[in-house]
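[recover] target loaded
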């Protein structure tokens, strides 16, 4: 019984001390006083590691955004991209981006499958640019930069004839397209 009473007394004393200190802390905050918090060394180390990780992820994101800006073909940057055709590498510059059409050849569950089909298509149609993109949960293979619907329809017929095995999946999609110039 005495143990219980002493425990209760300790709890009440702690509560009184805490509530009595609160107005002093609040008044120091409101009136611009300095408050020092003593934290264990391990906590400060974790905080520094978290800060470093955050800075690294922000740098990585900035680099990815910068790379995306280059492939977006901003007129002012005149971004450069290498295209691997069947035999040689050609250099082309994105002149501008606008709306147009692409052929969506397929959607795949793996990047390797989409890239394999892209290689097959590039071997038969080296003049069409291929785009393998990921939109969760699938990989998409799109082909071409067509400014008008008629050219896209004609290309779709040609690609379907060349690849009848997955012709059913092929469709035209409206998309941002690149206007390329040869260097």
């Amino acid at each position: 019984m005495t143990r219980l009473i002493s425990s209760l007394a300790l709890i009440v004393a702690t509560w009184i001390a805490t509530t009595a200190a609160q107005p002093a802390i609040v008044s120091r905050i409101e009136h611009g006083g300095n408050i020092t918090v003593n934290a264990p060394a391990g906590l400060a180390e974790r905080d520094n590691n978290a800060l470093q990780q955050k800075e690294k992820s922000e740098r990585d994101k900035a680099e990815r955004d910068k790379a995306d800006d280059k492939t977006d073909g901003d007129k002012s940057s005149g971004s450069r991209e290498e295209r691997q055709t069947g035999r040689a590498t050609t250099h082309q510059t994105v002149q501008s981006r606008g709306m147009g059409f692409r052929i969506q050849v397929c959607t795949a569950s793996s990047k390797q499958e989409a890239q394999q089909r892209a290689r097959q298509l590039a071997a038969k149609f080296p003049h069409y640019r291929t785009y393998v993109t990921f939109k969760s949960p699938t990989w998409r293979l799109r082909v071409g930069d067509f400014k008008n619907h008629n050219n896209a329809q004609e290309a779709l017929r040609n690609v379907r004839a060349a690849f009848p095995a997955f012709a059913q999946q092929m469709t035209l999609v409206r998309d941002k397209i690149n206007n390329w110039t040869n260097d």
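[recover] notes: The domain at 80-182 is CATH 3.30.70.1070 (Alpha-Beta Plaits).
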